[in-house]
Amino acid sequence: MAENRLNGSRVSKERLTEIVEYFSKYSKEDTMAHFDISAATIERYEREYKNSVNPAYNPNRSIIKTAEGPNFTIVSKSTDIRTLEQLIAFCKVDLSIWEVKKHVVNMWGSEANANFQVKAWLSRLKPELNDEEEILNLIEEAKEYAPKYPEVNRIDRSESGNLLEVSLFDHHYGQLSWGKETGDRNYDVKISKSLALSSIDYLLSRAEEVNIDRILLPIGNDFFNVDNAFETTIHGTRQAEDDRWKKTFISGRHLWIEIIEKCLSVAPVTIKIIPGNHDGERIFYLGDALECWFHHSKEVDVDNSPPLRKYCEWGHCFIGYTHGDREPKGTLINIMATEKPLEWSRTKYREWHKGHLHAANIKAFQILDEERGVREWILPSLVALDDWHSGKGYSSLRESMAMVWNKDKGKTDIFMYHPD
After folding, report:
1. Segments forming the whole domain that contains residue 154
2. DSSP code of residue 180
């Protein structure tokens, strides 16, 4: 079917309408990225649309939305949005989530050609939380419905004293990155899932070279890109998100169940939940969901305890986990010795494993420091650059890693996965 092309226009009427209607709902930057067109092209399409399709269209309307933590501000400048009610309706504000704290309406111009500015300040409504007893009852009820995991029949091997630590740090599941904007690779939920599974498959295949008694999975360190329905981090910073927050949580949970089941085919699994600065609350919910799911499995141990930092003692080896965004530089050695003095005294090979870099080598792997027998490692990530890191000029070597820890000899092997 031939397109209905307007006289003198290089685009069809349908395409023109699609672009202008999209621009009426989203910002100019979003429209430019979505249709891969310039700002000048958008302005020309607006004029064509008004002249040839819809004479009532108002190209002078502008909507500015600003979010800061739990607060949200909307400002409109137009000839047709004149009241708070019209602003709320046009922006599709859900008043079951947001409360209007105050608003102002300004008018200028002549009576025949009046212009209006409507500004509204909104705050997020606090959800009604169930009491602690009801929450605990729900958790116990969920555990009752957990699937039954039979004991895995593995190849009969003698005990080796080896622990395999498999890391998927700073994965930012849900992040949306456009390669044309960042100069890096595209990144979305589908790509993120594929990278995670490919990484796990490869690292587990490399571990076949070594007899493994147990697998250690640190989960978190900004596994999720956002923390809530408002697509912000725990500090209220907006992020570019690929999908709805409920959908990414459910698919992220399914992803980790699949990863854990892959690991179970090799050895029993210990899980450490590590909160990050993007997903501090959400990762706790994931840890609780995994604990419920594997409740009947004797071979999965989930540590979703409240402390920010987690530890694993394996023979003479002692590993500490933290995201690395809170502790002052140089304090982790004393923190480990103070928080876990008995484990400190019993062990010889001690390391901190962190994510969250704010340096030019962001997401890159390096040994930061070694002091009095304690090494601090910043572990690598598979995530692509987002627009913020790209704008700052950061670069990244995408990789993930696994380490083999022997109870007596310390770290004996390191395996690296590179997707590129």
Report:
1. 132-417
2. H
